């Protein structure tokens, strides 16, 4: 029998804050293990051809995860499943069974086709050994694709039932498997980077199986899996109709992301020169440097920004027919996203060099390579604040049924990003790719915010009413003051020309503690509503925000 049905649209907005804290706590654990994983991988594979090849191959299954697992499917499935769960739990069970079955069969078949294409490509002699290495790694890790997408779909079911911890904890399994593999390969057996990369790739697939079993265990008692899917065709058709625009938009976005990776990894696949002999502006290590930099800015984004949007989405979907409650939840989500995202953006800007040395310096990553990574991190930092709010706004559009509009916005900025990539890399090398991504992200945020204010306000004052704008301004003041104080303190801290691990760790810890203290103190003065929400002390969801 199906488990308890979650509360309907009258559910307090305070509950999603609790869900966000749960998701953020589990995601924090996962991201810490992820940083350990990336630190070990960087030291084992280096900032060179092998590191770039591995990260590109690992991106392939994760691209499909973002597209089918956490992107289009979640945007269409969670609102439909939530409605069925509220009105007809038996149909909800059938819909979940149908979606899981189609995903396993469809993505499993696609995996076999892609594996065959890779085998054909490997049969053709390649000019560069690193290109063959990347193809082999792709073949090893492709089976992770249907597994991780199924895990994401099962996580969507769990989210609708108010269970956020299992999905947030699933990446811990992946990180532990990869950590174990790199420790065995690079340290216990002292293998070459190439052999270590293959072992880590195999561990990724093993982790995918474990993740699926982990989520299925937590779904016991919540979903009755069945082969009988009659009655689910109507909800499934509505879901597919909603998925269409999102698939187009996210598909283009993921192709753009892959194009970015190919731009960075061009020397690995095709050599150091363009057709005609013109030197290529990037070297074999550019892809690895960018990937390791992305991991650092994605740490606060994943722990706080995406966690908040993920927790708010099911509630927004349930409140889609209650516009005043929907707008209140959206305003609260935007203000909390800014409260976390803006200080995280400027905080990472202040500590980027020390953070890179602590996480990556050592093994096959020398000071020069660490400097390359740090420069990329500096230019990626605006994406933390931009994407923290963008994820909330995008999910609000999805929850209200407007899936096409954010898709069109996303498509428009893909071209901007690609044009900037191909221009800026000739002037700033891999830093130009990071600059391009940040410029496009800020532009996308601006357009989405304007559209959300006009279209999601429900005839009220709009999404960005005066209390919301004051809250955003207060978050900006907190972030700016924190940056000024932390940067000033770090400038006065004596340091040698080549700071070691312990010196960098001490500086990083002191900067984080100082920055957190400054932000907390100012938030208590300027952002009293946000502090109450985070501490779960404001029980009346309908209470208007104070000017704070």
What does this structure look like?
There is one protein chain. This protein has 548 residues and is mainly alpha-helical. The chain has one domain. It has 18 helices and no strands. α5 runs parallel beside α8 and α10 packs parallel to α13. The longest helix is centred in the middle third of the chain and has 38 residues. It is globular and about 60 Å long. The N terminus and C terminus are likely disordered.
Number of helices: 18
| Portion in strands | under 5%
Helix content class: over 70%
Shape: globular
Q: What would you say about this model in short?
A:
This protein has helices at 13-45, 49-69, 72-87, 89-123, 129-141, 144-160, 165-188, 193-219, 233-270, 286-318, 323-360, 367-380, 382-399, 404-428, 430-455, 466-492, 501-526, 528-534. With 548 residues, it is an all-alpha fold.
Task: Record keyword descriptors for this entry.
mainly alpha, disordered N terminus, 548 residues
Blueprint of the fold:
Elements (H helix, E strand, L loop, with lengths): L12 H33 L3 H21 L2 H16 L1 H35 L5 H13 L2 H17 L4 H24 L4 H27 L13 H38 L15 H33 L4 H38 L6 H14 L1 H18 L4 H25 L1 H26 L10 H27 L8 H26 L1 H7 L14
Helix pairs in contact: 1-7, 1-10, 1-11, 2-5, 2-6, 2-8, 2-9, 2-10, 3-4, 3-6, 3-9, 3-10, 4-5, 4-6, 5-8, 6-7, 6-8, 7-8, 9-10, 9-14, 10-11, 10-12, 10-13, 10-15, 11-12, 11-13, 11-16, 11-17, 12-15, 13-15, 14-15, 16-17
